Amino acid sequence: MFNNNSSFISWEKACLNVFRLQRRIYKSVCVGDFSYTLRLQKLLLVSSSARLLAIRMVADKVVDKNLDYSDNKVSLNFLEKFQINNTLFQNANNWSPGKYKEVIISQTSLGKFSSLQIWSIPDRCWQFLVRLIIDPAYIAISFPGNFSLYFSQLVHKMQKSIFLKLNKQSYGLQKRILIIHFLNKVENFSCSFLLKKILAPRSIKLGIFRFLKLGLKLDLNYKSDKINPLGFLLVNVLFNDVDYISNGIRVGENLLVFLKPSENEFNLLNKIVEFFYLAGINKEELSTVDLFSVQNGFDFLDWHYKLYPTGEIYCVPSSISYNIFLRRVKNIINNSNYGAKAKVAKLFPIIQEWNSYNKFCDLKSSYFSLFFLKKRAFKSFKKESKQDLYSSKILLNRAFNSKLFNRSGMDFSLPSCNYSHLIFCSNFLNNQVKLNFSICIHCGMSATLSS
């Protein structure tokens, strides 16, 4: 009975309730009503929908069975979820975290080792709950070129913004490209400077301060968002001023700056170093700084950009990402331990991800064509005794068909408040007819609806 009660909860309705409150928080920050923002954040803190979503994100989605968790638990039953829900309801305003466990993860492809903080399940639930509260307030004041928080949803919007910066109307041929890489882990920083920049009630700031005193690490890598949600959010709040100084595009630890002919890159770096001094961050956080010409080309986030003398933009997958993709696909095709149907099941998500990520790139070149991969896969399928010519062709179409989508799982992740229409409505009378005038503050789109 307990195991089936989670199916009675309407997760779509819970996401809608949380998103409505987040939109109200976002609007109040946009108009500068911060006292109303704090009241809405306190209301969202005690919301049952927000608590249930936070528990669901930790217990059902962010589970990695290969990691050694601090409380020796990988999944939760319904009774344990109910107990965590009561704990969050009673102690959310005065949360005291426990100790964390540090796990060493080896990256075999890079030959490096990285450390990962694993907090207990109740602590991670509280972190996700605080993330739901601070997110809309931070997005309202964040720089439009920051795509770190919702990178998976806004990756192609970020690519479009790069195209707009490099087109003929923006005089892209006259610009230079400055790419700054920060270190993933921000270890030394001023805790008081960070807490002053957070717009949240005092009880939430007190819980964040306790996490920081226990050693919560700030991680700039956007891939660590699900494992370390609070640390990833706090480091974006801390680096918000860097985005305004550079006036570029930042995704995690990567910062892309478009320099005009009159701008000096040394002045920009000096301003960033001055901000680091105010925030208590060492200058060594600047890992590498690279300067490129748009006509020679540059790599950014697995894409290679180049401008022709005519002003046309050339965007293709980078050679490093393409070689990694080929290695993953060839290892599956050449593996004799898998049958043809098992190979199709493993190939389809990889090829689907590749096609969806690079759908706005120029893949007409024979270098990026999947023809030879299809030919090699067809030979591998046909070698199996259970498959003939026609069945191998059907399996090949299933593996390399980009028009198919995996509809087995449903995603209830919340959208961003910043990248959708934000409508402010006002009622007025016009010729004895009541009209509802609405306008979006982002795009300026207006609509007049009679009631």
TrEMBL record:
- InterPro entries per the UniProt record, alphabetical: RVT_N
Provide the Reverse transcriptase N-terminal domain boundaries: 9-87
One Pfam family name from the record? RVT_N
Could you tell me what this protein is called?
A: Mat1
From what organism does this protein derive? Lepocinclis buetschlii
Source organism lineage?
Answer: Eukaryota, Discoba, Euglenozoa, Euglenida, Spirocuta
